[in-house]
Amino acid sequence: MKKPKIVSKHVPVLTSDFSSLIPSISGIWIDGTFGSGGYSRVLLESGAEKVIAIDIDPDVLPIAERFEEIWPGMFKILTGNFCEMSELVAGLGIRNITGIVLDLGISSMHVDISTRGFSIKNDGPLDMRMSKEGPSACDFINYASETLISEVLLKYGEERHAKAIAKQIVSVRSETPIESTHQLASLIEKVLGTGSTLRIHPATRSFQAIRVAINNELQNLIQGLISGYHLLNVGGLFAVISFHSLEDRIVKRFFNLRTNSESALNELKRIGGNSEPLFEKLNKRPIVADAQELFQNPRSRPAKLRIVKKISDGYVKIRPESLGLPNVSSSLREFQCG
Ligand SMILES: C[S@@+](CC[C@H](N)C(=O)[O-])C[C@H]1O[C@@H](n2cnc3c(N)ncnc32)[C@H](O)[C@@H]1O
User: Fold this and answer.
1) Residue of 220, 212, 204, 210 lying closest to 144 (CA atoms)
2) Which pLDDT belongs to residue 270?
3) Distance 35 CA to ligand 1 centre (A)
4) Which of 22, 74, 269, 330 is most buried (CB neighbours < 10 A)?
5) How far, in Å, is the centroid of ligand 1 from the Cα of 98?
6) What are the tens digits of pLDDT across the range 155-202?
């Protein structure tokens, strides 16, 4: 019998490249970023015995429930953070993980539903919390110090005008709270100008930075990579789709790691020894969208897919900065959710 189609607005990216790099899918997979299930669907339709899906956003549950109906016993959804995937999966008593996929960031549903507060285009409350819990973007923008706002915009958004934007935020909020996405976007637009040469909205980098900061996205990514590495069988596959250079740098460096801690690695290098790589690459260069996918789904433009195979079971102890995690003041902690 033909499986019924699930209607969703999020178009998953690079799924055909994923499928052609992994022609025979089997065993138990983790989809650590379920969203509307594009990757879970590909896995279930291509031979996975079981998919354990994780998403930090409780709003994906109605879609996941449909998956549980369509693939009874083969699909399980867990609400949680993929940085704790080992613990979440251990709670199910499942071992022998054959593959993990992480399709990072936010989904189209986050952007399209204005009340979630991620959208520059559709006005909504300044929220941006994927988990719907903890401090929001509004708390950060209205209560963080000018220095912290500037640091976040610069380091998480690579926004060159971070200082000027932070100064304007602090000046405006002393008169009136900044509570909506349009208020913030137009404030930034006033500082930077609309510049007809800009391909993206002038507030895009700042919105990305604030979202990454309050959802603790980069630290979660590092913990998720470590947790996933420990969970995977030797021979298992780890696929990650990243959407900006900060994420991709972390993924690339992690996939290039070797066994032993960094200090041990340096010691070994000094005495001319060697250590084993953790992974073998399936694709030497990251996969990006081709012209057809770019045309059909412009959101795929920044996406990069890297897939590796775990080849050794080692001890991973790393300093997050060595993977490229920007060093941001610890006072950010009080504004992070999830
Ligand atoms: C780009 S979307 C994934 C789209 C999905 N692959 C699809 O085809 O529909 C990213 C999803 O991951 C979730 N997410 C982001 N960070 C997460 C984290 N640390 N732990 C669990 N879920 C996370 C978001 O809530 C969002 O639903």
Assistant:
1) 210
2) 46
3) 5
4) 22
5) 20
6) 999 999 999 999 999 999 999 999 999 999 999 999 998 765 667 899
Residue 173 · residue 108 · CB < 8 Å: no
The reported pLDDT for the residue numbered 317 is: 76
Domain range 15-108+217-321, CATH architecture: 3-Layer(aba) Sandwich (3.40)
Of all protein residues, the one whose alpha carbon is nearest to atom 16 of ligand 1 is 105
The CATH H-level superfamily of 118-215+329-335 is Putative methyltransferase TM0872, insert domain (1.10.150.170)
E strand residue ranges, 56-145:
75-79, 97-103
Q: Is the distance from the beta carbon of residue 228 to the nearest atom of ligand 1 less than 6 Å?
A: no
User: How high is the pLDDT of residue 197?
Assistant: 61
Atom of ligand 1 nearest to the CA of 131: 25
Asked, colleague to colleague, whether 15-108+217-321 and 118-215+329-335 share their fold, the answer is no
From the alpha carbon of 13, which atom of ligand 1 is closest?
8
DSSP lists the bridge partners of residue 306 as 240
Q: How far apart are the first and last CA of the chain?
A: 40
Q: Which of 16, 83, 86, 107 to mutate to test the pocket of ligand 1 (most atoms within 8 A of CB)?
A: 107
59-79: average pLDDT: 97
Q: State how far the Cα of 239 lies from the Cα of 101, in Å rounded to an integer.
A: 5
**Ligand 1 centroid from CA 137, angstroms:** 18
For the chain, the structural domain boundaries read 15-108+217-321, 118-215+329-335
The atom of ligand 1 lying closest to the CA of 34 is: 5
Partnered with residue 51 across adjacent β-strands are 29, 75
Describe the strand order of the beta sheet including 97-103 as a list of residue ranges.
Answer: 75-79, 50-55, 28-31, 97-103, 232-242, 304-310, 279-281
- Which residues is 75 bridged to in the sheet? 51
Q: Which residue CA neighbors atom 9 of ligand 1 most closely?
A: 36
- Hey, what are 254's tokens? 């992690």
